[in-house]
Amino acid sequence: MQLPAADPAIVSRRAAIVGALREIVPDGVIAEDTALRAYESDGLSALRQMPLVVVLPRTTEQVARILSYCRRDGVKIVPRGAGTSLSGGSTPLGDAVTLAMGRFNRILEVDLDNRCAVVQPGVTNLAISRAVESDGFYYAPDPSSQIACSIGGNVAENAGGVHCLKYGLTANNLLGLEMVLMTGEVIRLGGRHLDAPGYDLMGVVTGSEGLLGVITEVTVRLLRRPETARAVLMGFEDPGQAAACVAAIIAAGIIPAGLEMMDGPAIRAAEDFVHAGYPTEAGALLICELDGPAVEVDALIARVESLARANGATTLRTSTTEAERLLFWAGRKAAFPAAGRISPDYLCMDGTIPRRRLPEVLARMQDLSRLHGLRVANVFHAGDGNLHPLILFDANRPGELERAEAFGADILRLCVEVGGVLTGEHGVGLEKRDLMPVMFGEEDIRQQQRIKCAFDPDHLLNPGKVYPTLHRCAELGRLHVSGGHLPFPDLPRF
Amino acid sequence: MEWLTPADETAAAEVVRWAAARREGLEIRGHGTKAAIGSPVQAAFGLSLAGLSGITAYDPAELVLTAAAGTPLAEIRAALSAAGQHLPFEPPDLSALLGTPEEGTLGGLVSAGLSGARRPFAGACRDHVLGVRGIGGGGEPFRAGGQVVKNVTGFDLSKLLCGAWGTLAVLTEISLKVLPAPETQATLLLDGLDDTRALSLLGQALRSPADVSGAAHVSGGETALRLEGPPESVRWRGQGLRDLLGLPVRLLDDAASRDWWQRWQRLEPLAAGPDFPVWKLSLVPTQAVAVAGLLRQADPSLRAVYDWGGGLLWVALSPTVEAARIRQAVPPGGGHATLIRAPLAVRAAGGVFAPEAPAVAALSRRLKDSFDPAGIFNPGRMA
To answer: Are B43 and B379 in contact (CB under 8 A)?
Structure first.
């Protein structure tokens, strides 16, 4: 993966840019190498690049002034929340200002009557739930980085989590945004009410990976916390049986709060690490969580247990206490660090496939594992077909990182080939940028870029991310229409 | 108006290319059941998608249904129902209100972005559009999104096209996320509550753990709370709600409850009265009663129904009340009003959709120009 080359003309103006930013945010500009080091990567730590400069605004007005300045002077901007992106969404550029939103860290209002909260974008995902838990509410999307990741970053990446199947991604839990456009204009989309009168701009901004604007305020939907939650732990000899069990649960009309799968290598790595009591001889493990009133959870658990038996489960345990439920989850939630224990490095992939293709995809992943000479452990959000293969490698061995990246790209190509997509929840960022043409044709990408042209025609916001190349907006605006006669004979007209 | 009805996407693209080259406006429609919503389209030619019809892929276990844009919604409902599934966003059936013989096509539904009673709980129409195929402003076919339930690859163009009233691109195929239909349902009905009391009770119920999936009130009529799920759960939550409300309720069992909400989805309490203009107001739930109060000052004969626990207010009121007066009733930043039914002359005067703030309007215009540089798609519709 190559980082975009820095523009020497911008780099040579660094002192002037730093000066201009200090005018706007006197106490919030980082320009010294040692301090900049903290910003040199995000959660995709294989990619490192010192930013040109970091600015930490405190107010929407400062953000607007920064964007206006950058637009006027043609300076690129990389927006950054907590820097937990797994796809390089906030990887710095050597010729761009990193606009870090960490100081926007206040919960502005909790409005339980309207079941929403208004927060600044630097507030962590978990802090929102913490602020309302004593009232029995929570914010549903729960990416695994929720203790650290910011809500603004969640919006930019349309972050998911283990409860997406039932409760949706970030996009499905947002009510309103305030954002600054590259023009320096501040706009409000949505609010405490639902739906927009015109185009669904909020829907487009969500998941746009920092390419369309800078989010300065977020209104989220709060949900009443379910009365109870219990989990069923199911072990199977092979992943095909586990996949069949998942399909059977959905076919029975049950949408679990969480439905996770791990393959043999992931089970054993997690069990060695946290001793959750996983069946280490199993070829696949399912964790199925049901939530709601106890009477509902009990009824659904009984059905899931019987479906597990019918599909050949060799292990079947149901949590009877909250501590036990959390223990079932402990292994799954520790899967990434557990992979880190059995391998010096790992790459976490993120594709989605139609669930019915899972056994075939797993088998072909094993072939790819042999081909690339690298091990892979698999964890999935099985309910929605979102795979997280963990490719194990050692970056200190020459060539292994490149092989791991090639393996990962092959897995994502496979996901697309079977009817799936490149990313279910981590975003394209830098990591999957060059694979976009695998999933989308030239015309498909041009249509997406028409959005970019309306928001940021000079391509100053987060350049080099998501799209391998950006068409010049003037070129997209030109109409390439030839002809000028209707194929009348072929068309019914009335 | 001359209508062109291509039989496939290639022919539809040909029509668009022809129109783009001549900068000839096209009215885009499926069955035309929602043609009476919005400002009248200024075009001499029409592009009908009715010829692009049929479900192209549906595997209930994958929770995804893909169909051509001109597929009748009735056909989609039937296919889902046969598999025990449904459209979670519960699209309203406006045929009674608008006087159309049926509820139109999938493409029409998605272009209008309509969602019904379950919207605050299950998400909106746009939350269930996973991907589309379409034709761009120069006649170029394209694909957006995917056919799997979880996807964040690239900009979510499908969301932008949902609710765009056919002004940005021509939809030719749509993939929807679908879900198992709840096993059973029940509704608690309360009678004789004034708006303030009713909305306060709905709010209380929505803040409770009862997991309500419908919260409606007819001004001067019934107040309804719906529960859905496995039977034992519905019974248990129903008891909890009764205890919470502490008022006499009538309990509608599964069949009666389905019937009540079907009538609700046809907006019968509004459709039944005189042929007055009908407005749909999206509001902050706790402000809905006050808004209705202001509108009642403008027209004491106002008919009002509340959905979404107050987040949605439908009103029918005298044509003498001007759009500006209705919009003034909505607190700044607290929602928006859309004119859903009105005579042509009223709609032609503009003001169907709420005006956007200048910077948002400018951005929307840039989007329109970017997607439809020749200005051929439904000219005037969202004016």
So the answer is: yes
Residue B224 covered by a domain: yes
Q: Are the beta carbons of A276 and A194 closer than 8 angstroms?
A: no
Instruction: Order the strands of the B55-59 sheet from edge to edge.
Output: B55-59, B64-68, B170-177, B129-135, B141-145
Query: For the segment B75-124, what is each residue's pLDDT rounded down to a tens digit?
Result: 999 999 999 999 999 999 999 999 999 999 999 999 999 999 999 999 99
A8-100, CATH topology level: 3.30.43
CATH architecture assigned to A228-336 = 2-Layer Sandwich (3.30)
Query: A252 to chain B: which residues are within 8 Å by CB?
Result: 180
What is the per-residue pLDDT for B270? 87
Statement to judge: residues B260 and B150 lie in one domain: no
Query: Looking at CA atoms only, how far is residue A317 from chain B in angstroms?
Result: 23
**For chain B, percent of residues with pLDDT exceeding 70:** 100
Q: Where are the domains of chain A?
A: 8-100, 107-224, 228-336, 343-436, 443-494
Residues whose CB falls within 8 Å of the CB of residue B288, separated by 6 or more in sequence, listed in order:
B199, B281, B306, B310, B311, B313
Which class is A107-224 in CATH? Answer: alpha beta
User: Do the beta carbons of residue B29 and residue B70 sit within 8 Å?
Assistant: no
CB of B32 within 8 Å of a chain A CB? The answer is no
Q: What is the extent of the structural domain holding B277? A: 268-358
Contact residues, chain A, for B126 at CB < 8 Å: 200, 203
- In A327-440, at which residue ranges do the beta strands (DSSP E only) sit? 345-348, 351-352, 375-381, 386-393
Instruction: Examine the pLDDT at A489 and tell me if it is beyond 80.
Output: no
Look at residue A487 and tell me whether its pLDDT is greater than 60. Answer: no
Quick one: closest CA in A to B370, which residue?
A: A450
Average pLDDT, chain B: 96
Contact (Cβ atoms closer than 8 angstroms) between residue B18 and residue A485: yes
**Domain assignment of residue B64, yes or no:** yes
* Cross-chain CB nearest to A206 (options B63, B156, B208): B156
- Output the pTM of the full model: 0.96
Q: Determine the Cα–Cα distance for residues A115 and A84; give it in Å rounded to an integer.
A: 28
To the nearest whole angstrom, how far is the Cα of A311 from the nearest Cα of chain B? Answer: 16
Q: What average pLDDT does the segment B218-227 reach?
A: 97
- Confidence category of residue A484, pLDDT binned at 50, 70, 90: very low
Look at residue A480 and tell me whether its pLDDT is greater than 70: no
Minimal Cβ distance to A491: which of B11, B59, B282: B11
User: Do B65 and B159 belong together in one domain?
Assistant: yes
Cβ–Cβ under 8 Å, residues A300 and A254: yes
- Name which of B84, B159, B334 is nearest A193 (Cβ-Cβ): B334
Whole-complex ipTM:
0.97
Q: Do B374 and A479 touch (CB under 8 A)?
A: yes
Q: Are A199 and B360 in contact (CB under 8 A)?
A: no
| One domain, residues B133 and B164 | yes
Spell out which residues of chain A touch residue B367, defining contact as CB-CB under 8 Å: 199, 450-451, 454
Mean per-residue pLDDT of chain A: 94
